[in-house]
Each structure stands twice: as C-alpha cells, then as structure tokens.
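Hi team,

Below is the intake form for Tight adherence protein B from Thermotomaculum hydrothermale. Please confirm the fields before the structure is written into the shared record.

FORM ID: S-0412
PROTEIN: Tight adherence protein B
ORGANISM: Thermotomaculum hydrothermale
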Amino acid sequence: MMDTIIFWLSNLLIFAGFAMFGYSIYEAVLLGYKKYKEGYIKKVGNELNKNFMAYSPERFYKNTILAAVGMAIVGYLLFDSVLFLILFGAIGYFLPKMFLYMTARKRAEKLEVQLVDALYVLSNSVSAGLTLPQACEVVSKQLVPPVSQEFGLLVNEIRLGVPFDKALENMAERLRSNNFDLLVTAILISRQTGGNIAEIFKKLAESIKEIMRLEAKVKALTAQGRMQAVVLGGMPFALAFVLASISPDLMQPLFNTPQGTVILFVAALFWLLGIYFLRKVINIDI
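The structure came back. Fields below:
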C-alpha cells in the first residue's frame, strides 16, 4: 500500500514539475509576444503618423498576421511542403510593411518635387515682407499635399510654443531628406548670420532642380540595368514553373526531400545575394 502511494505521489510530483515548466515557458513566450506586438504597433504607428495615413496600427498588425497565415496556407496547399509554408508565410508577413514602405517612398518622391515650388513660395513671401513662420504658413495654404501637410505641421508646432529652429529640426528629422536638410540648414544659418534669405531660397531651388535633373538622367541611363535585374531576378521562378509544367516528377524531389530543401535554401540565398549586388550596381546616389 505504501509503495503504491509513493508511486502515485512521485508521478504527481513529476507531472506537477512538467506542468510548472510548461507554464513558465508559456508565460515567457506570451510576455515576449506582447513586447514584440507593442514594439511593432508603436513603430508602425509612428510610420503611419509620419506619412499622414489615417490607419490604425492595431488593425495593421492584425492584417499582417492574417496575411501571413493566409499565405502560409496557400503555400502548403500549392506545394504540400513545410518549406513553402514557411516561405509563403514570411512573404505574407512582410507584404503589408512592403506596401507601407512603397507608399512612404512615393510620398517622399512627391515631396522632393514639390520642394522647389515651396522654395519659390517662401522666396516670394519673404520678399513681400512676411516673416519666415508666416511664409511657411503661406506654403501650407497655397500648395497641395504632401508638402502642405509638412509645413502645416511645422506651423502648428510653432503655434503650440515650439521654437522655430526646433520645429525646423523636427521636420528635417521627420522627413530624412537631403534636400530638406539643405533647406533647414540654409534657414538656420541665415537666421544666425543674416543675409538675403529670399535670394538664398531661389538659389537653393535652382540647385535642387539641377540635382533632380541629374538624378533623372542617371535613372534613364540605368534603365536597361534595372530591366536586366528584373529579368534575371524572375528567371529562376519562370524556369521552375516551366520545368514543373513539363515534367512534374522531375521537380518533386526538390520539394519532398531533405536534399531538395537544402538545395532550394542555398539557391534562395544566392538569389538574394545576387539581387542585393545588382541593386548596389544600378542605384547611384547624386
């Protein structure tokens, strides 16, 4: 009888130990997930606010998870492979952030184009006798988004008591643009040393127009290289599709065997390296 009691108590203690260990792992994973979620939502929220996008970061996070799960299911159903389940899940996870990045980049490109017009408006406003904050308010009212949004935010910060120089630095930090850095630097220096600020704005506008002209020329000259990068990047996938259509049995070992999984992983790694070096070659900064 005593042996039976000891036996069951020992099993109970072992079970309790495993249960506590499992619960500790669960709590650690849950805590890590909460911290990651909070950091992700905060980072995405800052990016959405910076680009004046009226979208909830919590909803963005939920859509990211749904996209990852949905793409993972599609990958597994199409290829019946755990590797493609993970690969498609990763693609689905990063697709919303890629969309956000592309939207932010298009907005930044539009801002660069509108900066020249903003400089001419600033120059004319200062020549008419307005102060720099008043000239910035004219830009926010006369021009269209996104440049009007940025100067409108600058004006609102000034109205809330932020010093003009600090508000300019906040705008430069928010935009992270070389041309806007030139504008902010020119304004700050002119406020300290004096000078014809209207003429400085005109000269700066002409310089930025020349930079944009050179960038457009470089983009035209490297158009063939970018097309070659697209063709070379898509060729492995097109070839795999053709081979799978012609002879599915020939491609099955790549998806259903450990050796095939290793080959696909190595091929994907070299493909990513090739894309990285191609982008380095064709992307030229002015």
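SUMMARY LINE: The chain has a mean pLDDT of 83.

Thanks, M.
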